[in-house]
Amino acid sequence: MSKTYTFTKEERLCNKKLIDELFHNGSSFLCYPFKVSWLNTTLSQPFPAQVLFSVSKKRYKKAVDRNLIKRRIREAYRLHKQEHLYSLLNNTNKSIVFSIGFVGKEIAPYDFIEKKVLKLLMQLSEQIAK
Which residue in 101, 85, 6, 98 sits closest to 53, CA to CA? Predict the structure, then answer.
């Protein structure tokens, strides 16, 4: 299977019922500067994982700052999801929905965010494998 370095609309979590279920019944862990909530699903989807990115409006008042952080997280996720998450999910025939919330206190540079996204994908893979 070839690596897909894309992030399409189908990979984004938009379903309000699924989002509510994720935050009420899902598991979560902290991998600073991120808080990750995840939930196994039985829905048949074209992709094994759907993700939601969030940055607090309370902490970052300017939309420019929130968008910058989300862009950096999305890019790091897009580059590393295939080898660190999708390969495990495809092998175990599972599908999940999860959210990555940014809880850091300052806007981090891309290389720091990329390193932390890699760490959180590893941690998420461990939790799914349990």
Answer: 101
